[in-house]
């Protein structure tokens, strides 16, 4: 009789532990629906150089983006685009085309690393993210840093 009671207790305890573990595992593996709060706000950032750095020319610039994807220019795809650098200038308003000139440099092949020849002195560099036809995503998808290029 003691053996039977012992086995019943073992089965009950094991059963309780197993079902709890199974329930916990199911809850852990359940996919949480994505909400606006769980999404990352899109942004661009400089990996190199950092704001305030003193650098030498050519200046190595490494560009990053979160919440969007870098792709070459050519087509408009939601959530995608490419980088532009603006030397000693400001961001481009949302919906406006980023000009192409000596101070507005396009990286339409999807580049995220570049080397720029800059004259010695103080410079601002603005990174601007834009869609496949160079239409700016605006101030929220831009970042400006100040650097000093040493002689």
Short description:
The chain is an alpha+beta fold and 151 residues long.
Query: Radius of gyration in whole Å, from Cα?
Result: 27 Å
The coarse silhouette is: globular
State the helix count.
Answer: 1
Instruction: State the order of secondary-structure elements, H for helix, E for strand.
Output: HEEEEEEEEE
CATH topology tier name of the largest domain: Immunoglobulin-like
The overall average pLDDT, rounded, is: 83
Terminal Cα separation, in Å?
94 Å
CATH superfamily of the largest domain: Immunoglobulins
Instruction: Classify the secondary structure makeup into a structural class.
Output: alpha+beta
User: What fraction of the residues are assigned to beta strands by DSSP?
Assistant: 25-35%
CATH class of the largest domain: Mainly Beta
User: Any guess at the CATH architecture of the largest domain?
Assistant: Sandwich
Quaternary state of the chains: single chain
Annotation, overall tally of beta strands: 9
User: Percent of residues in helical segments?
Assistant: 10-25%
Q: Indicate how many domains the architecture comprises.
A: 2
- Report low-confidence residues grouped into runs of 5 or more: 3-37
Q: What is the makeup of the main sheet?
A: 6 strands, mixed
């Amino acid at each position: 009789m003691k053996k039977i009671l012992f086995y019943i207790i073992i089965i009950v305890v094991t059963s309780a532990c197993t079902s709890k573990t199974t329930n916990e595992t199911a809850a852990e593996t359940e996919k949480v629906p994505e909400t606006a709060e769980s999404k990352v706000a899109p942004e661009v950032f400089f990996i190199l150089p950092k704001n305030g750095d003193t650098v030498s020319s050519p200046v190595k610039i490494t560009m990053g983006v979160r919440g969007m994807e870098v792709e070459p220019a050519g087509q408009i795809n939601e959530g995608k685009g490419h980088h532009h650098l603006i030397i000693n200038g400001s961001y481009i308003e949302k919906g406006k085309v980023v000009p192409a000139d000596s101070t507005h440099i396009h990286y339409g092949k999807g580049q995220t690393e570049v080397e720029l020849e800059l004259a010695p002195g103080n410079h601002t560099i603005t990174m601007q993210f834009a869609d496949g036809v160079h239409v700016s995503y605006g101030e929220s998808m831009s970042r400006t840093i100040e650097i000093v290029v040493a002689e």
